């Protein structure tokens, strides 16, 4: 499995951890693993390879550095490449809407903000470090969590908490996220990958067919059948937000390090 970017320091790395587990690792630690166009393309390619490889039974999304993922790379957005961060078939980061038959685990060692939380929510399970946090701060910038975060968060935590998360933009610390059920396991930060691998290997030891078929049932029971309708509602909301002046004001205020003046 080769890196499609051909770079010496690839922004995304694909690793095999034993016979049946694969890891997609975000590798832009100095940029808090913010998703670039190259990363979205690589993640999409690697996820497809994992799903197509019969030897791989479980997949992990992890990251290098202090942050898991800060969401979209605002430099790409400023350069007019924002739409390319969402792939036509698989959505943001080449991942959030991708077809997933196998179980996916997010190994979150630090802050997962905006699209970072949306990547975690697109996985089936989450292992978090004690220093991890989960937040959807889009409303602070005149945006909404339009890559599934605004409705998937409501499946992961109680309704009132989900509403607070999307309306305030305040992040949930790891322990709070664990207590609410968003996180499966919480461990010291330096043990996140070990714990994610232990969980992956426990799953991989079972019948691959039984696991896949069980996932179909459980995903559907947790609201998976409604996803197409929810995406339509979400996409309409995103369109309205993108057409409003608050979007430009939010980005400008952020870059100028001042409080935004909302107009809508």
Give structural notes.
With 264 residues, the chain is of the alpha/beta class. The chain is built from ten helices and eleven strands. It has a six-stranded mixed sheet, sandwiched between helices. Strands 7-9-10 form a three-stranded mixed sheet. Strands 4-5 form a two-stranded antiparallel sheet. A hairpin with a 3-residue loop joins strand 4 (86-87) and strand 5. Helix 3 crosses helix 4 (149-156) and helix 4 runs antiparallel to helix 5. The chain is globular and about 55 Å long.
Could you name the key traits of this structure?
disordered N terminus; alpha/beta; globular; 3-stranded mixed sheet; 10 helices; 6-stranded mixed sheet; 2-enoyl-CoA Hydratase, Chain A, domain 1; 16% strand; 264 residues
Can you describe this structure in just a few lines?
The protein is 40% helix and 16% strand. With 264 residues, the protein is an alpha/beta fold.
What does the largest sheet look like? 6 strands, mixed
Classified by CATH, the class is Alpha Beta
Number of strand segments: 11
Q: Identify the strand order in the major beta sheet.
A: 1-2-3-6-8-11
Number of domains as seen in the coordinates: 1
Q: From the coordinates shown, what is the CATH architecture?
A: Alpha-Beta Complex
Decide which structural class fits the backbone: alpha/beta
Q: Please tell me the overall pLDDT.
A: 90
pLDDT < 50 stretches: 1-7
The helix tally amounts to 10
* Beta strand %: 15-25%
Helix content: 40-55%
CATH topology: 2-enoyl-CoA Hydratase, Chain A, domain 1
CATH superfamily: 2-enoyl-CoA Hydratase, Chain A, domain 1
Order of helices and strands: EEHEHEEEEHEEHHEHEHHHH
Distance from N terminus to C terminus (CA atoms, Å) equals 48 Å
Kindly provide the radius of gyration, computed on alpha-carbon positions and rounded to a whole number of angstroms: 18 Å
């Amino acid at each position: 499995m080769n890196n499609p970017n051909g770079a010496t320091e690839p922004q995304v790395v694909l690793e095999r951890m034993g016979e049946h587990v694969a890891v997609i690792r975000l590798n832009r630690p100095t940029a808090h693993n913010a998703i670039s166009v190259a990363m979205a393309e690589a993640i999409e390619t690697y996820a497809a390879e994992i799903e197509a490889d019969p030897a791989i039974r479980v997949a992990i999304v992890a990251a290098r550095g202090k942050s898991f993922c800060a969401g979209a790379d605002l430099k790409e957005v400023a350069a007019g490449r924002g739409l390319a961060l969402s792939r036509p078939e698989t959505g943001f980061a080449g991942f959030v809407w991708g077809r997933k038959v196998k179980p996916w685990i997010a190994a979150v060692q630090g802050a997962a903000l905006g699209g970072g939380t949306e990547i975690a929510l697109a996985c089936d399970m989450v292992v978090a470090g004690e220093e991890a946090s989960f937040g959807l701060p889009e409303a602070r910038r005149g945006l909404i969590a339009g890559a599934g975060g605004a409705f998937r968060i409501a499946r992961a935590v109680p309704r009132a908490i989900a509403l607070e998360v999307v309306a305030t933009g305040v992040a949930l610390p790891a322990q709070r996220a664990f207590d609410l059920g968003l996180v499966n396991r919480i461990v010291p930060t330096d043990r996140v990958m070990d714990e994610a691998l232990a969980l992956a290997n426990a799953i991989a030891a079972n019948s691959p067919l039984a696991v896949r078929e069980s996932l179909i049932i459980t995903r559907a029971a947790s609201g998976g059948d409604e996803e197409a309708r929810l995406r339509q509602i979400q996409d309409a909301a995103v369109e309205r937000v993108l057409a409003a002046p608050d979007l430009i004001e939010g980005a400008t205020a952020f870059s100028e390090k001042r409080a935004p003046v909302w107009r809508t």
